[in-house]
Amino acid sequence: MSSTLAIAGVSAVLQFYLSNLYAGLSALFGSTVTVSAKAPDLVQESFAGGGSECQVNLFLHQVTPNVAWRNQDLPSVGPDGRTRVANPPLALDLHYLLTAYGSEDWQAEALLGFALLMLHENPVLTRQDIGNAIAKLPITDPANPLSTPLGAVGLADQIELLKITPATLGREEMAWLWTALKADYRPTFPFQVSVVLIEPQHPELVALPVLIRDIVVEPDLTPFPHITAVIPQMSQPAARLGQSVTVQGHRLLSASGVVLTNSLRGIQQGIAPTAAANASVQFTPPLLNAPGELAAGIYDLAVEVTTTSGPTTTNSLPFAIAPNIDTWAPGIVPSGNTQVTVPCSPFVRPGQQVFLVIGNQLTVADPIAAPTNTPSFTYPDLQPTGGPVRARLRVDGIESRFVDRTTTPPTFVGPLVTVV
Question: Is the pTM of this model over 0.90?
Answer without folding.
Answer: no
